[in-house]
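Hi team,

As requested, here is the filled-out complex form for the zinc ion run. I kept the field names the same as last time so the parser does not choke. Let me know if anything looks off before we queue the next batch.

— J.
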Amino acid sequence: MSRRRLERELKKLAESIGGDEAIAVIKALRGKDYQTDEELAEKTKIRVNTVRKILYALNEIGIAEFKRIKDQETGWYYYYWKLNMEKLPKVIMTKKRKELEKLKKKLEEGEQIYYWCGVPDHPKMTFDEALEYEFQCPICRRILNQYDNSKELEEIRKKIEQLEREIGLKKNKRKRGNDHGGYYK
Ligand SMILES: [Zn+2]
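And here is what came back:
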C-alpha cells in the first residue's frame, strides 16, 4: 500500500472511530513515544474521557498500544500510549474484507423482488407475504407495488467492485493492447 493511500485510509479509519476528535488524537500520537492520556487530552483540548475512549478503540483494532506504570509515590497507575502503525495495513484489509462481506450479503438480499407501499419504515414483503395481505400494506392499507431497487443494487455492485480491487481480489481492468488497434478510436 502506498504511503498516500495509507494516510487516506488512516483518516477514514479515524473518522469511523471518533470523527475529528479521533483524527486529532492520532495526530497527537504520531511519531511520538509513549504519552499519557492526560497529556494527549491537554494537547488536543479534548476531554480526557473522550481521549480514552478513542485510545481504547484504536487499541481494539490493533493500532495503538499502551503500558501501565505504577507511580511509586502515589501508588496510582498511569497509562502510556503509542501508535503502532505497522499493523495498519492489515487492520485496513481486515476492515475492507468485513465490509465486502456485508455488501455481498446486502446484495444477495436485495436481489429478491420486494413489494412495498412506499412509506419509509413500512415492511417490504416477498411475493408470498404480499399475496397473503392481498397486496395491501398491513399498516396503511396502501397498495403494495413491486419495489424497484435496481439503482441501490447498482450502487452496491459498484462498491463491491471497488473494494475487491482495493483488497486485490480483482485486478484493474486491463486496457486492450495494440492487437485491437484502432478499435477504440
Ligand atoms: Zn404502508
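Two things worth flagging: Residues 117, 119, 122, 137, 139-140, 142 surround zinc ion (CB under 6 Å). The radius of gyration is 25 Å.

Thanks,
J.
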